[in-house]
Specification:
This protein is mainly beta. The chain has 4 helices and 41 strands.
Length: 751
């Protein structure tokens, strides 16, 4: 790692002699920047697409000083992006219109998709995507099952990185932040031959001081050491053929994310151990960023089996973790003729991780886990696009997906038997194979009316195996149960071009999320019994407009979603497990989600630009009924959706002017998130009050140099990003990043 970092620093320093490609962040004053999106698998103006989509251009992304896409959550109404703190690398909880998934278990499919350069990322771990080389970020709201497929019932985050330019140039960026943080990154473009362009990227980010104060160890917790190396090759052997290969590797060494204890007076850790939160929304330390988590791990058992260790033999150990990823993407783009284009995209994404994590947040070892695991996925997409300038435009294709996930977890339980620590292993392995065929077409009925129709047939097959101590499994293993699910998800749309600047649209779409097998169960029967798929019917009416000579862009949508067999990850009591609980996905509910969304961009003057959005969400369960382990029927239909605030909104303003031969601008952003719960069962101790997040920056660019002073969460909102109740024993939570600020210098060359 040290040698790799040394090489990286040398590579970044090489930028100082003259190679990059992204210009200093400047916008054309007085005229709105046209935003091109690929929301329908082809490049189109955002204003011409008859779906609900918000997007940030490269310039806007750079102006937000985002560390990852969590810092870009203000892009869209009705969007919540949280880091759950459950394991290394950032476990994403992405919710659009109240739809999402917030568990680290990779047996559970996400409900909101993340696509990077056309490759779907099937894991919540690593889905937060570091912000280094982003050309565009799009948020597609509502089901995207036709073109993007499985597990996009809530929507999609579509991320596009910059492409090689073939010209000598690039960018070098350096910054320093509080919490002893520094970062360096560079983008380098050049050409090896007339038809072979190359882009190299490199980045490092070190956070030497953590956000959390660990009172047990007397040190901070949350340090990180991140590196990234990438290469992108674009070969154009003919005028009609492009071949592109992208390689990226990320390495993250870190303190395991800290989880704080918020145990209620009625829970075991309070009554038996005296660890009681001062109030429902306060950690046991009294400080949201104060964690009492202790370290420790039992000696390694002779084999992968249950081991019992006296508590006084536990070795103290601080919580450490790593998360490494490697990506390969191969694209072929062939213009067969003026009307027909063939695209092929192959993607491979793999991750390797391990963490020792304290889930109880107290000095003793009451419940810790060690969780090494690997994820591998391969996908292939073959796509034909037809556009001869006539009445019919169409895209269709085939898709294949294969993934495998394995987790070799050890649970260390110190509360079950006084003076003893139980070392309980459990391995979970799951493979998934998915095939699909899809199409979507626009039929121009007249100069004003365009009819859209399409659909996707998807077939998923999953196989799951578990072995180890799942109590009634008793060191046994399942018989690799497997199951298949298939679904056709149609899409219909109608677009009316009222004028060159105003368009109305109506859309009906269906989302589908496949069933699966649970990974943290209490019995053999539960391990082999699959849960069912879920479906959602989505109806939208919207308008898109550009007014006052392209100085104002106003888009609005009203929608209604009808959810059937909604999958819920629930933590249920269980007398069959050593922890007293199990985590399962079940299909207990149906629901209705309705709302309104507004997006606005405007130049109020030649110097003052504004970007704003507002979302209203009315989500409610029609029924939420299941049978508990004792056979009693539980009705939770009165619960509120988690991560579904009634109101969300953002106001982002930039004022820019010329001064001293350069360009200066100040930016301020305010994001409002209404009160909401972070748990499916509405646990009050991890509920969030309304919050207002303020970001700001002061910037000056002259020649090839840009200087910035920036801050995030300047009001220091201390809300929770995740909450969890463990079977009446205790509750834990993860908290929002505190106030951060820093300075940044950008040097651009040959632009």
């Amino acid at each position: 790692m040290k040698n790799g970092k040394k090489q990286l620093v040398i590579a970044l320093a090489a930028a100082g002699v003259g190679i990059t490609s992204v210009p200093v962040v400047q916008a054309q004053q007085g005229v709105l920047e046209e935003i091109t999106v690929t929301a329908r698998k082809r490049e189109e103006s955002m204003q011409d697409v008859g779906i609900s989509v918000s997007a940030l251009s490269e310039t806007e992304i750079q102006r937000q000083f985002a560390r990852d896409i969590q810092d870009l959550a203000n892009i869209s109404p009705n969007l919540i992006i949280d880091d759950t703190g459950q394991g290394p690398g950032g476990t994403a909880a992405i919710f659009i219109r109240g739809v999402g998934m917030a568990d680290l278990e990779k047996n559970f499919d996400p409900a909101v998709g993340v696509s990077v350069d056309g490759v779907f990322i099937g894991s919540t771990a690593g889905a937060l995507m570091r912000s280094i080389d982003l050309a565009r970020v799009e948020v597609l709201r509502g089901p995207q099952g036709t073109l993007f497929g499985r597990n996009t019932v809530g929507g999609l985050i579509n991320i596009e990185r910059t492409r090689p330019t073939g010209e000598l140039g690039g960018r070098f960026r350096a910054g320093v932040e509080n919490y002893e943080t520094y970062y360096l990154d560079g983008i380098f473009n050049f050409a090896l031959t007339d038809n072979l362009a190359v882009k190299l990227t490199a980045a490092l980010r070190d956070q030497g001081e953590g956000y959390y104060d660990n009172v047990t160890f007397g040190r901070d917790q949350g340090r990180q050491d991140y590196t990234n190396l990438g290469a992108n090759f674009l070969w154009t052997p003919t005028d009609t053929l492009e071949l592109e290969y992208t390689y990226n590797r990320e390495e993250l060494d870190q303190d395991t994310p800290a989880l704080v204890n918020v145990t209620r007076p009625d829970q075991l850790f309070c009554t038996a151990y005296g660890y009681c939160s001062p109030s429902l929304d306060t950690t046991i330390t009294g400080d949201r960023l104060g964690v009492a988590g202790g370290g420790g791990v039992p000696p390694e058992p002779p084999s992968f089996e249950t081991n019992i260790t006296p508590a006084d033999q536990i070795r103290p150990q601080f919580m450490k973790a790593f998360f490494d990823t490697e990506t390969h993407i191969l694209e072929a783009r062939w213009d067969i003729n003026d009307a027909l284009r063939l695209d092929y995209v192959y993607g491979r994404w793999e991750s390797d991780e391990d963490s020792l994590q304290d889930w109880d947040g107290v000095p003793e070892l009451l419940y810790h886990t060690e969780r090494p695991g690997e994820w591998e996925q391969d996908s292939h997409e073959l796509r034909l696009t037809w556009d001869n300038g006539g009445a019919l435009t169409a895209v269709g294709g085939l898709f294949y997906w294969d993934s495998e996930y394995e987790s070799r977890m050890r649970s260390y339980i110190g509360f079950a038997v006084p003076g003893l620590v139980l070392d309980i292993p459990q391995t979970t392995n799951q493979t998934t194979e998915s095939i699909a065929a899809f199409f979507e077409a626009d039929w121009r009925l007249s100069d004003k009316w365009i009819f859209t129709f399409g659909g996707r047939y998807t077939e998923d097959e999953k196989s799951s195996a578990q072995f180890g101590e799942v109590n009634t499994l008793s060191q046994g293993r399942t018989e690799h149960p497997s199951d298949k699910w298939d679904e056709f998800t149609p899409r219909l749309g109608l677009k009316y071009n009222y004028s060159e600047d105003v368009m109305f649209f109506a859309t009906y779409s269906v989302g589908f999320r496949a069933g699966g097998f649970n990974g943290r169960v209490a019995s053999l029967e539960e391990a082999i019994q699959p849960y069912d798929p879920e479906t959602v019917d989505n109806y939208e009416l919207g308008v898109k407009s550009e007014l006052f000579d392209n100085r104002v862009r106003l888009n609005a949508t009203i929608f209604s979603m009808d959810y059937q067999d909604k999958q819920e990850e629930l933590q249920l009591p269980s007398d069959q497990t050593d922890t007293g609980q199990k985590t399962v996905v079940i299909n207990p509910s149906s629901a209705t989600i309705q709302g309104i969304e507004f997006d606005v961009q405007a130049y109020l003057t030649d110097n003052l630009s504004l970007r704003a959005n507002l979302g209203y969400l009315d989500s409610e369960y029609d029924d939420f009924v299941y049978t508990d382990p004792e056979g009693s029927v539980v009705d939770l239909s009165n619960l509120e959706f988690r991560r579904a605030p009634e109101w969300t909104g953002t106001i982002d303003a930039t004022y820019e002017w010329e001064v001293g031969g350069g360009n200066a601008w100040v930016r301020g952003s305010y994001r409002y998130i209404d009160e909401h719960f972070t748990t499916a069962t509405n646990n009050p101790e991890t509920a969030n009050d309304s919050q207002g997040l303020v970001d700001a920056s002061i910037n000056y660019a002259i020649g090839d140099l840009q200087f910035s002073l920036f801050g995030r969460n300047l009001t220091d909102e201390d809300t929770y990003t995740h909450g969890y109740e463990v079977a009446g024993l205790w509750s834990y939570a993860a908290t929002r990043r505190p106030r951060t600020y820093g300075v940044e210098v950008v040097y651009n060359f040959n632009n």
